[in-house]
């Protein structure tokens, strides 16, 4: 049978060795604090559109050819009209987002026929019209 060995007594730490050990611990804590501070600086970037955008698509979700089309917004102090590009996108340069009021949108084709009437709720950056 084996007998259990008694634990060796801890060696006394010399004063010079103790200072070195304390300096290492302080340096390690300083590096950990710097790393934590670097992590706190990271922030989530939230991208927002600065002006109201309306997109016209087909029922299948494909962009519609909208050359010559116009969109009119009513509901604010005065009606605002803007022209679509060839890919179904119109940007209203005077309507900032998030919108604060509800707008009525009228989309007209190149022949000035009304294609769609939609209500855009408040707090929007963009609106999609499926035609």
Essential attributes:
alpha+beta, 3-stranded mixed sheet, rod-shaped, 4-stranded antiparallel sheet, 7 strands, 32% strand, single chain
Describe the structure.
The longest helix is centred in the N-terminal third of the chain and has 27 residues, at 15-41. The mean pLDDT is 84. This protein is α+β, with helices and mostly antiparallel strands and 131 residues long. The chain has one helix and seven strands, in the order αβββββββ. The strands form two sheets. The chain has a four-stranded antiparallel sheet with strand order 3-2-5-6, with no helix packed on it. The chain has one helix at residues 15-41, and strands at residues 51-57, 70-74, 80-83, 89-96, 103-108, 114-120, 126-130. Helix content is 21%, strand content 32%.
Fraction of residues in helix: 10-25%
Unreliable runs, pLDDT <50, ≥5 residues? none
Give the mean pLDDT.
Answer: 84
Task: Decide which structural class fits the backbone.
Answer: alpha+beta
Order of helices and strands: HEEEEEEE
> Largest beta sheet, briefly?
4 strands, antiparallel
| Total DSSP E strands | 7
Supply the number of helical segments: 1
- Distance N terminus to C terminus? 91 Å
Strand content: 25-35%
Radius of gyration: 33 Å
Enumerate the strands of the largest sheet in spatial order, edge to edge or round the barrel.
3-2-5-6
Gross morphology is rod-shaped
Produce a short descriptive summary.
The protein is an alpha+beta fold. The protein has one helix at 15-41; strands at 51-57, 70-74, 80-83, 89-96, 103-108, 114-120, 126-130.
